[in-house]
Write a structure and sequence with these properties.
Layout: H1 3-31, H2 34-57, H3 67-73, H4 80-94, H5 104-108, H6 111-133
Amino acid sequence: MTKANIKKLIDYWIKGSKLDFESAESIAYDSKRYVQSCFFLHLSIEKILKAYIVKITSTHAPYVHNLPQLGRMSQIELTKDQLKFLVEVNEFNLRCRYPDESYSIYKKATANKTKKLLNQAKEFIDWISKKLKD
């Protein structure tokens, strides 16, 4: 893959991450649909990690949606808190698509919890974005 193609692919993932983060904020603050907001938050983090993976591997991003797995694949040294955060947000990928009968995921995605996750995500995305510029 050429450097131009790699840059184009990285830019694609970065742009997608930004758009999905903006959607997560809008859904949370305007619609108050917190599960859906957290789902878009998951997408945003997934895409910024994929941008970094493309940077370090010079290949296409893997067809993986599991955030802790993508964190490992990125080869970034994650703190315990960052890994815990990825595990927590990862729950909103499948659980909100296929909720159990009790819809327990809806009980977890409160206004306060979603706001906290949005703040943590912004911090995490900014941190990865800085690494992408190195």
